Amino acid sequence: MPFQAVFALDELKRRVLADPDLAADAMVQAALAGDLAKLLAGEHFDGLMQVLALTHAGMTVEEFRDAVEIWLASAKHPRFDRPYPQLTYQPMQELLGYLQAHGFKNFIVSGGGADFMRVWVERVYGIPPEQVVGSTARTRFELRDSGPVLIKTIDYLFVNDKVGKPVGIHQFIGRRPTVCCGNSDGDQAMLQYTTINNPRLSLGLIVHHTDGEREYAYDANPKSTGKLIEALKEAPDRGWLVVDMKQDWNTVFRPE
Amino acid sequence: MPFQAVFALDELKRRVLADPDLAADAMVQAALAGDLAKLLAGEHFDGLMQVLALTHAGMTVEEFRDAVEIWLASAKHPRFDRPYPQLTYQPMQELLGYLQAHGFKNFIVSGGGADFMRVWVERVYGIPPEQVVGSTARTRFELRDSGPVLIKTIDYLFVNDKVGKPVGIHQFIGRRPTVCCGNSDGDQAMLQYTTINNPRLSLGLIVHHTDGEREYAYDANPKSTGKLIEALKEAPDRGWLVVDMKQDWNTVFRPE
């Protein structure tokens, strides 16, 4: 399950404890029961939006950051029994370091929320907040007696995934990437945008999750998100480098 | 008149020459006649949106960039008889250089369109595209036979002005500024966001246009945009530094 979805569920549980009336809500029940189909029903994903509104809106950006920090301090990945930010790939960390040492500016371009990722991405990857491109919604500025605040909302939600990724890259960065690394069909449009007709030399790279022992093995059939079918099919024609985790990586996770 | 409005008008004239039917349109006529009241009438500024759609949408981001470059190569400021990007303030260029030399990362946060500014901001200020925060709308990704393109639209328009500035700063940069320089009430919320209750030391600075001889003298009564009343009133209480162009600047424009 994406790491931010675990956060949202844990937050929802915390909210229900504080406000038991919430437990009567049908969509809250669906979320707590893991009924993704119900949350995604309808043209506007009303259930998912309601859960997002409860867990990601209505607070200041600092209050949200604090909630993420509190969660990060205690949450552990159930299988690997380590805090989530420790589960980064050693070879990708090395690639980020190599690129940075050679004059590249590294960005993270993820479907996750920018406000969620910016809390830990600098500590974990050495990438500062302004180089994080993620899903966003508009905040609302208020000058209170206590000072200026930005209140999180879910208005103008921008989902930084699939064709949204090149759109987000253009909006936030304003130029075409030179190197693009992905691991799912959600990265396909971004790989196309990086490598097809780019006036500069470019590299597209796909990490293929083939190692069920050390990590996971899936492509067409992930347990939750992360399907990798179309991008893998397109890779040979486009010259995208496919990295086989099991064959190619000596180490998967960064050592503790 | 804001420099981008001159571009939009010149583009509109070029479009009308290419497609004379456009000249019959009431809003195109209002724009060409400078009838701002008509363009801004109605709850959704329909006239302005129509002009924006004609001049800033419906083309790829590269086509738009080329149109801006062509315009920049020939347009000159009517009073100063110099290309617009040459009309930058020497003292502000020095401040940018000073901050950068001391480990700051400089951003431009303007009401102008990000796609418009990114064409020339790096050449003129040494600030790369990803450090330009401006007004934006969402592009649309298409994979054409000729390759991937991003088409400009006016959907989800975000106006990076007034309370939009701290909102844009949070969305694009993700942290609070340390130094904020402005010159109009459009910068007031950004100055508040930078200096009130900032856990770090901070500086707010307002450039007051007081020099009618070398540049312009206005605050409450600018010829078009740029009113400076409320921010100036607030400056003493907040400790914002007000720079008096006439008194404080030896040089106004960067020498040719």
- Number of helical segments with 4 or more residues of chain A: 12
Mean pLDDT of chain A: 95
Order of helices and strands of chain A: HHHHHHEHHEEEHEHEHEH
| Main structural class of chain A | alpha/beta
Radius of gyration of chain A from the CA trace?
19 Å
Q: Determine the oligomeric state from the structure.
A: homodimer
3D architecture notes:
Two copies of one chain form a homodimer. With about 260 residues, chain A is α/β, with parallel strands linked by helices. Helix content of chain A is about 40%, strand content about 15%. In chain A, the strands form three sheets. Chain A has a three-stranded parallel β-sheet with strand order 5-6-7. Chain A is globular. Chain A starts with a helix and ends in an 8-residue tail after the last helix. The model of chain A has no long low-confidence stretch (mean pLDDT about 95). The interface between A and B is large, with 37 and 37 residues.
